[in-house]
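Progress against Task 2.4 (sequence-to-structure conversion) is shown through the following example record, which the project officer requested during the mid-term review.
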Amino acid sequence: MTDWFCNINNTSGIEDGTSEATGWTDITQSRPGVNGVTGGDRIWIKAGDGGLTYGLVGTNVYWNMGPSRIISTYADPKKVIEVIGYAGATSDPVPMGDERPHVFLARSNGASFYCEDGCHLSHVRFSSNPYPSNNSTIGHLSISDGFATNVSMIRNDGAAVGDRATSAEISSGSTVIGSEFVDDVTDANWPTRDPGYDANFTLFDISEVTGCVFKQLTTSYMGRVRSTYGSIIFKDCIFVGNGNCRALCEMGSYLTNGMSTYRFVRCVFYNMDTGFIVTGPTSVGNVDTEAEWQNVYDRVSFRQCIFENCGTGVDVPAYTAPPGWLSGTFSMEHVVQLVDCVFANNTIANYSGDMNVINPIQLTGTAFVDAPNGDFRLNDLPGQGRRILERLPNFEMNNIFINGKFNPRPEQAFIPRKEIARGF
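Structure tokens generated for the chain above:
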């Protein structure tokens, strides 16, 4: 294993990446296949002084670290690569918030930064402007079969976004822990989207997301979701809308081939038109009967989740068999399950449609200290936050978004604060 360094503060005139003093100021110089970087290496990214920011800007300017991308170059491509942000020395405590190095993403013909194929990314914050091109599902940050922790991705407002472009992608067996995904694009810059693409984030297949925040300002869906090839699990996550955000999930055409498991554990759905919509199939795909589709559609479960200040918490719309299906009847009751879930200040319904609800908990007011300003700690008011702990004595919120600032618990990121040099 070789340690390499990016250091945007380097003014020595020597840039070979072999030490902090001679670290690359151009982050693309640390790409695998460039300057000797290969599988099994570790790349340290130094935070910029005085707001200095790394940039991935222009045509074909990107960073990827997947071994599959260097398979023809190196004999041992299966070794992963670690990318670790740091602020002081590499042995200092894990950098949090704005202490983390900042990378601005603005590739003009595709995603800018790829965390893929089992590789590890930690303690880095990203931002981007909207990707303007139509007919492209680009998210400037792509986490695909990768591992990311303490990462931030913020898409700025100020320009119209393309009709399919998303802010970030989490897909294909990824694990994401203690990270923040914020889309600041407003409705004024949100065009009419193509069917199946009216969403801010892409969340696909066999991924596990723990202790993360997703936040948006548009009235679109929060996530373009697919689990055709395996389950998606969210634990201790917070989803924050603008009050009219349609729902976490827009499944689109993937419904025609059936869906796998969605599991939500101790998640918060706040200020959304609908927290989650469980949609039935709309057209014939690889399956063409209700019974066959039901066999491939596994469980959608919510356990100890909080739905607050939404129109409806969970909605299962009435199902109508699509044209071309052969025969049979269909029920979602065995599919959708809410267990020990908490409801507060929802204006239309806590839940609606065909589902199995066990031990619902109704509050008389907000569960949180100051959710409008980002403090999602449980309050201690009777009938409100206190009632959750009375009814669910083992309930524990991770409190990762406090006082309007991102603050993941270090223990939840599985990285001791004093041991960053050990990486993962």
